[in-house]
Design brief:
The structure holds three protein chains of three kinds. By secondary structure, chain A is α/β, with parallel strands linked by helices. In chain A, the strands form eight sheets. An eight-stranded mixed beta sheet of chain A has the order 17-14-13-20-21-32-31-28, sandwiched between helices. Chain A has a six-stranded mixed beta sheet with strand order 3-2-1-4-11-12. Chain A is built from 16 helices and 32 strands. Among the domains of chain A are: 106 residues, ATPase, nucleotide binding domain (Nucleotidyltransferase, domain 5); 141 residues, Rossmann fold; 82 residues, no CATH class. The longest helix of chain A is centred in the first third of the chain and has 31 residues. Helix content of chain B is 0%, strand content 28%. In chain B, strands 2-3-4-5 form a four-stranded antiparallel beta sheet, with no helix packed on it. In chain B, strand 4 and strand 5 form a beta hairpin. By secondary structure, chain C is of the alpha+beta class. Chain C folds into three domains: 220 residues, no CATH class; 208 residues, no CATH class; 52 residues, no CATH class. In chain C, 29% of the residues lie in helices and 23% in strands. In chain C, the strands form six sheets. A seven-stranded antiparallel beta sheet of chain C has the order 3-2-6-5-4-7-8, with helices on both faces. The N terminus of chain C is likely disordered. Classes of the chains: A alpha/beta, B mainly beta, C alpha+beta. Chains in contact: A-C, B-C. At the B-C interface, strand 1, strand 3 and strand 4 of B face helix 3, strand 7, strand 10, strand 11 and strand 12 of C. Strand 1 of chain B pairs antiparallel with strand 12 of chain C, so a sheet runs across the interface.
Chain lengths: 701, 86, 642
């Protein structure tokens, strides 16, 4: 492939800004992919992430041999917000709540954590153990809105002012304001925010305005988390922009958001909490492109990282979205975000007994430090990577572009120690761990596909992450999926995805209106108001609104319910006839998901949601295989289900040309990944240099 | 009689206990002669057990005889043939 | 170049990974069923409060065993195994057909109380019933004189909610009209009950689809083997836990305040006998069944085992294997096995008491113990006919749960805002409750000085105030009114429960829960001026009720009810708690300066620890305790305004 990681291609013009780069900051590495707009040249690279993330970002641009001034656009995903949150290193934050409700964050909806600690008497709710906003900084102010937006108790400005002054005395620099029923009338919240601005002129103040939907706990959590990480994220974006400008940057910086799109820095700074995690989102964006370009619009994606695996189901090339995201039990964000589910098994996951004493892979992980035993950096407990090294799936000399020579003997010794408790052999445990990891990932994929009524046989499985391709063929077999699509550079797929992400800005408003033709006008008015607002905001940010289009969704439920269901609807103006058609669609959706429909009960639209989309112009990628024979050598490895080791061919991915075939069993190795092709399967290379694995065509068939 | 085990008086004493009836037997596990029969609830529901009182080895686990009154109540139609709807 | 991997047999003996994967598959089916049930339910009990659970029972030679389940509330996991067996003892399996659903809510067939209904659906494989899927939830109403399920004051089950022995609810997935008519025509909120019945049925349909899919993938024999494996592995883990307790007989006694009919305390006694890896839990010596509705018919046979799980095997999934090492002895006619025609609807206090008393008994055998949780839910049920504009004439029902705390443990403070371990109740979305019901949730927050003191204190108690915008009928179920949750290992008790009625509620005037102006005592222990005082006060002084279990109280529109629920008990000597942690609690308004001095011997001045004074105070209290003139006080808020 035409990827030149370490050196600048001397043939490239450097006088004008012609490069688009995607930069994805991860826990260990900062990945970069650069694309030349005119020539289609692609470069990729990896540098170690830095505590001050802008340093790693700037270093990554240099690592692919580019000057900042050569870059026209940067699409960027970072982890500043999530890191601040996980390590509780956010801003010292205060909360202004309705009097009587200052403890919503501690209540956490009151339920316990499902899973291994459900019955553990020593379990503490995460916010009790490690508060985001300690109780001494939470104030209940005198005010109360009713459900219908009328004031039961008017706002007592003095009570807000008093709280603000106390917060100022305590050195608080950020304040969350979330009042009960403010989604229906935000007058008190707005007034409270004004008073805070007067008393704490330098503080960051966030209100429910960032996403004014019902559910007081989830909304409070969302506003509080934003206030907690907001100053950190805004400060980071500010430093990054300055650093870029100092180096001659005259292009656009886009920030990856959790709704599956990018936003301008200005828009991203409006609600920083919505960019908490971006890596998995970048991966899904890449998959969306793949789904739209290739012959398979329906993809199941598995993004296998070091500590966990993210899975998503893409239907018809559309971004899958959900509306709730639980960070820790009791800390839930409510907003539209890419529907990615995680399972705690990844390449660095430890092989340990589960609660019943059986073999488990994860959720504990060796992380990047010390990492798997075979890295020789002090790890002593075997990981999935060690299992793969012993099985032969990972070749010691071909790992990570030769950056680390894997110590297979150390892996074997560690696996032997763990295996002894079951009376197993090291290789037996390695095979079991490989199988358990594949089964766990398949089970997670099933929950987001089969259990949502999707027929997965029609889907292709698409792995990413360096470890994805070594598990994918087996996962596909377990799921009954015929086709596996391994994209180019799977290890940097998220960064690549960033490059291909559209601008997406999502806004929502709760309206609690019947889904009834008689209400079509008021529902349409709610949509139109949101769309007009977003349009004007984007125009103000200098976006090219001539190419803008909107997507719409409603959240609907039967009258008397609480759990609403997100349903995308056509973007056209909603008429009485349009509403008339949505009602039976809702009943059908309900029957499919819940086993019944209640056709005589009115349907309520709890919330309307719009997403403004400005599509990214897709540059051409110039893809030429490297010189040389693809076949490297043979190796013996132990494959799932096989009684003993088998001899397989090893092929170099970068040298495989379109149309070339690799019959299984085989390994296809590339710089940062290894693909396993199982017996009875054939991999072939398509025109976009994707590796497609399908059942072998035999004489009989 | 079908309807004889549907209603019961409140016990006369302020506190109530389960009686363990000694059984002439020897525990096959520990050899103890302290063996008793009494009503318990196990993982399935009400059962009569004959159990070593020293080590809790279960010598037998059976469904209650009518005279065991365990549990005291029972369905008035328990021996009737079932229709399509129960 | 060829690198070789040593040839080794991969099929070496070891754990059966395939079975473990199918076992996990069964749990996944249950999880999806619960998700479907919760998201599609109509009443706040099921969709929000999570008083629901789904279970997969497997047919075995002995009867029906639980292979997998997913809890909403914990208690259902422990009572479901018996309900299935009682049901199938009564139902001719040969008459069952695909798509049938059998309903029961009979407490004498294992149901927690009449309000908790159970739906069972056979799953046929090759023409034979191999599994039973169960969904269970508390329904908002099922008729009877008192709405909501807790029939305070009733002395027979004839005065309680409808009680159905096993009854066909769906035949071949067609609703059985007479059964639905019976349930809906005898109901105050038929629209909510119909919605929940559909959701309870719908999740069985979803569950069967997924279980059949699992069987198609794994094969019936292997899925059954996986169920067996799950049960055996959980049993083995439970037995390892029991074996870690020294053999012996451990006895403890606790009590319920009263039954809402007479004012006699109701002792709950237990002897837990440990022999190797088996156990007996014997409730001999407990009170006979009370006259009121505070006893249960059968469910304690399973529910008490949760206490053992909490102590010795918290991490394995619950199934029939959890119950297998334990025989439970329930004296007939006792508070834990009331005989018909007794009333049996108020299970919410005897349940936690049974768990409390078993953990107190086992706490004598191990250092790794924990203090009692609040021990009562201070449950409140609301209902009425809406009078608000746009809602006029709509019947409605809602619930409130104030929370409570779990006890301090050998490791840490107890968790706050967590209902007793029979539950796992989630709060309602209050913004939705206020749309559907003429209620305003005026206060729900922690209350200072309500946690039992200890080296590790209990979780906090809280204050819960609800204002009515239409006349509202209220049922309250509360216990632990005289003395809060017991401490352990020298820790102090949590605060007892208290209730008030506030006429003409105004947030500006009544927003401070420590201000008693305009608050009329409903129940609790009060001093002569009306301050709650569990040590020197008198039970029921000046109060409208001498019980925490009453029904048909009317809150007039514009008025409010305020409840205090105590926190969990403390674990260990509070005089040994790190003073810095006490200071943090004071900063966060969880403990008052005076409370710190009285219960922890920590003296604070201007927010800082006075080390010398603290040393002296702790020495003084230690000496007084040795002399028998001081004990760790019952937690109680101190700084009331009259």
């Amino acid at each position: 492939m035409t990827t030149h990681p370490d050196i600048a291609d001397p043939g490239v013009e450097s006088s004008t800004a012609a490069w688009v780069v995607g930069i994805d900051v991860g826990g260990t590495f900062t990945d970069i992919i650069a694309l030349h707009r005119r020539t289609g040249e692609v470069r990729d690279g990896k540098v170690l992430s830095t505590p001050q993330q802008e340093e790693g970002v700037l270093a990554s641009i240099a690592a692919v041999g580019l000057e900042v001034r050569e870059v026209a656009e940067i699409v960027h995903g970072h982890t500043v917000g999530i890191n601040a949150l996980l390590s509780r290193a956010g801003e010292r934050t205060g909360l202004i709540a309705t009097r009587g409700h200052q403890d919503l964050l501690d209540i956490g909806r009151m339920h316990r954590e499902f899973g291994d600690r459900f019955y553990d008497p020593t379990w503490l709710r995460p916010h009790q153990e490690r508060p985001i906003i300690p109780r001494e900084l939470r104030f209940g102010v005198l005010e109360r809105m009713r459900y219908d937006g009328s004031a039961l108790t008017p706002l007592d400005a003095d009570s807000v002012r008093e709280a603000a002054r106390e917060l100022a005395r305590q050195g608080v620099r950020s304040v969350a304001v979330c009042l009960v029923n403010s989604y229906t009338n935000d007058e008190h919240e707005r007034r409270a925010a004004e008073i805070l601005a007067e008393e704490l002129p330098d503080a960051y103040v966030q209100t429910s305005a960032l996403y004014p939907v019902t559910k007081e706990h989830e909304r409070t959590t969302t506003v509080a988390l934003d206030a907690y990480v907001g100053p950190r994220v805004v400060g980071y974006l500010d430093r990054l922009e300055s650093g870029l400008v100092e180096r001659g940057f005259g292009g656009t910086l886009w920030i990856m958001m959790m709704n599956g799109g990018v936003a301008t820095v200005a828009d991203a700074g409006r609600a920083p909490v919505f960019q908490l995690v971006s890596g998995p989102v970048g991966g899904v964006s890449g998959s969306i492109r793949l789904a739209n370009e290739g012959a398979t619009p329906d993809l199941l994606t598995i993004d296998v990282g070091g500590t966990s695996t993210d899975v998503a189901a893409i239907r018809g090339g559309q971004t899958p979205l959900t509306d709730l995201w639980t960070l820790e039990t009791g800390l839930t964000l409510t907003m539209p975000l890419v529907d990615v589910e995680s399972i705690g098994s990844g390449a660095g996951s430890l092989i340990r007994p589960n609660a019943l004493g059986n073999v488990a892979v994860g959720p504990a992980s060796a992380g990047s430090d010390p990492g798997p035993v075979c890295y020789g950096r002090g790890g002593t407990e075997p990981t999935l990577t060690d299992a793969c090294a012993l099985l032969g799936v990972l070749q010691p000399d071909l790992f990570a572009n030769g950056a680390i020579e894997l110590d297979v003997d150390a892996s074997r010794a560690a696996l032997e120690r763990t295996a002894s408790q079951w009376g197993m052999s090291a290789i037996g445990l390695a095979a079991a761990a490989y199988e358990v990891a594949c089964q766990d990932i398949a089970a997670k994929v099933r929950t987001i596909s089969v259990y949502r009524g999707l027929d997965v046989r029609e889907f292709a499985l698409q792995p990413s992450g360096s470890a994805g391709p070594m598990l994918a063929d087996r996962v596909a077999r377990i799921l009954g999926v015929r086709k596996v699509v391994v994209p180019r550079s799977p290890g940097q797929f998220s960064a690549l995805g960033l490059l291909r992400t559209d601008l997406r800005v999502t806004r929502a408003q709760s309206i609690m209106t019947p889904l009834d033709p008689a209400c079509a006008e008021s529902i349409e008015a709610a949509f139109a108001t949101l769309e007009d607002r977003v349009h004007d905001e984007l125009k103000g940010q200098g976006a090219d609104v001539t190419r803008l289009h909107f997507e719409r969704a409603i959240f609907a439920m039967y009258r008397g319910q609480t759990w609403d269901n997100r349903m995308p609807i056509p973007p056209a103006s909603l008429t009485a006839e349009g509403v008339q058609e949505l009602v039976p669609a809702f009943h059908a959706y309900y029957e499919e998901h819940y086993g019944f429909a209640a056709r005589e009960i009115p349907v309520v639209v709890s919330t309307v949601e719009v997403t403004a989309v400005i599509p990214r112009e897709q540059a051409r990628f110039e893809l030429v295989p490297d010189e040389g024979a693809a076949f490297l050598r043979t190796a013996e490895l132990v494959l799932p289900g096989a009684a003993g080791p088998v001899e397989v061919g090893i092929h170099v991915r970068e040298r495989l040309a379109p149309g070339e075939q690799v019959p299984g069993p085989a390994l296809v190795t590339e710089k940062f990944a290894t693909t396993v092709v199982l017996p009875g399967r054939t991999a072939h290379v398509d025109d976009d240099l994707n590796l497609i694995i399908e059942p072998q065509i035999t004489a009989e068939s | 009689m079908a309807t004889d085990r549907l209603m019961f008086p409140r016990p006369q004493t302020a506190r109530v206990s389960v009686e363990r009836t000694p059984v002439e037997s020897q525990c096959p596990s520990c050899g103890s002669r302290d063996v008793a029969r009494y009503p318990v609830s196990n993982h399935l529901g009400p059962r009569m057990v004959v159990k070593c009182q020293t080590c809790f080895t279960r010598l037998s686990v059976t469904r209650a005889e009518p005279e065991d009154m365990w549990p005291a109540w029972r369905s008035p139609t328990r021996d009737w043939p079932a229709s399509r709807v129960g | 170049m060829t690198t070789t991997t040593p040839a080794t047999d991969t099929s070496a003996t070891g754990p059966d990974v395939e079975l473990d994967i199918l076992r996990y598959g069964l749990i996944e089916v249950a999880r999806e069923m619960l998700d479907s049930l919760m998201r599609s339910a109509f009443s706040p009990i099921c969709r929000d409060i999570l008083d629901c659970t789904v279970v997969i029972h497997m047919r075995t030679d002995e009867g029906w065993e639980v292979a997998a389940l997913w809890e909403g509330c914990m208690q259902h996991a422990f009572v479901a195994p018996h309900i299935a067996n009682f049901l199938m003892d009564d139902w001719d399996i040969d008459t069952m057909q695909p798509g049938d659903v059998v309903f029961t809510n009979d407490p004498w067939r294992g149901s927690l109380h009449q309000a908790d209904v159970n739906l069972f659906r056979p799953v046929f494989v090759n023409g034979r019933v191999e599994f039973l899927l169960q969904s269970t939830s508390h329904l908002v109403d099922l008729g009877g004189p008192i709405p909501g399920g807790f029939s305070n004051g009733a002395q027979s089950h004839f005065e309680e909610q409808l009680k159905l022995p096993p009854t066909l609810l769906y035949a071949n997935d067609v609703a059985v009209r007479p059964t639905f008519n019976f349930l809906l025509e005898n109901n105050r909120v038929p629209h909510l009950v119909l919605g929940d019945l559909r959701a309870l049925h719908g999740c069985l349909v979803v569950g069967e689809r997924q279980l059949q899919d699992l069987i198609a993938r794994g094969g019936l024999d292997d899925v059954r083997a996986a169920g067996r494996y799950a049960i055996d592995a959980t049993e083995a883990s439970m037995r390892r836990g029991i074996a870690s307790i020294p053999d012996g007989d451990y006895s403890a006694e606790d009590f319920l305040d009263e039954d809402g009919v007479t004012d006699e305390p109701i002792p709950v006694a237990v002897t837990v006998k440990v022999r190797g890896d088996s156990m007996e839990i014997d409730f001999s010596g407990s009170a006979r069944q009370p006259l009121g509705n505070s006893s249960t018919a059968w469910c304690e046979a399973g529910r008490c085992i949760e206490a053992v799980k909490l102590m010795v095997d918290p991490s394995t999934p619950v199934n029939s294997g959890t119950l297998k090492p334990i025989d439970v002895l329930l004296p007939a006619g006792s508070v834990v096995q009331t005989l018909p025609p007794s009333s049996a609807s108020s299970h919410a206090d005897i349940g936690p008491r049974v768990i409390n008393v078993v953990t107190q008994a086992l706490g004598q055998a191990t250092e790794e113990s924990f203090a009692c949780d609040t021990g009562t839910a201070v449950y409140i049920g609301f209902s009425g006919i809406d009078t608000r504009t746009g809602h006029k004439g709509t019947p409605w029902g809602a619930y409130g749960l104030a929370g409570g705390g779990w006890g301090g443990t050998w490791k840490e403070d107890g968790v706050s805002f967590c209902v007793t371990p029979i539950g796992n109740c989630r709060t309602s979305v209050q913004e939705h409750v206020e749309i559907e019901s003429p209620l305003v949730v005026a206060q729900h927050e922690m209350l200072i000085d309500t946690a039992g003191a200890g080296r590790f204190r209990g979780g906090l108690g809280s204050v819960y105030t609800i204002m009515a915008e239409s006349d509202t009928l209220v049922t309250v179920v509360a216990d632990r009114l005289r003395r809060g949750a017991a401490g352990a290992n020298g820790g102090g008790p949590g605060a007892p429960a208290v209730g008030w009625y506030i006429a003409g509620f105004d947030l500006a005037e009544h927003g401070d829960p420590m201000n008693l102006r305009g608050a009329e005592p409903l129940f609790g222990v009060f001093d002569e001026q009306g301050r709650p005082d569990p040590v020197h006060g008198e039970f029921g002084r000046g109060a409208r009720y001498t019980t925490g279990k009453f029904s048909n109280l009317v809150i007039k529109a514009g008025d409010a009810i305020r409840l205090i629920i105590g926190g969990g008990g403390g674990w260990g000597d509070p005089l040994a708690r790190e003073p810095e942690r006490v200071r943090q609690d004071v900063r966060n308004r969880l403990v008052s300066v005076e409370g710190a001095r009285l219960s922890y011997g920590v003296v604070l001045a201007n927010g800082e620890i006075d080390t010398a004074a603290t040393g002296a105070r702790r020495a003084e209290l230690t000496a007084a305790r040795d002399a028998g003139t001081w004990e760790v006080p019952i937690a109680a808020p101190l700084e009331w305004t009259l």
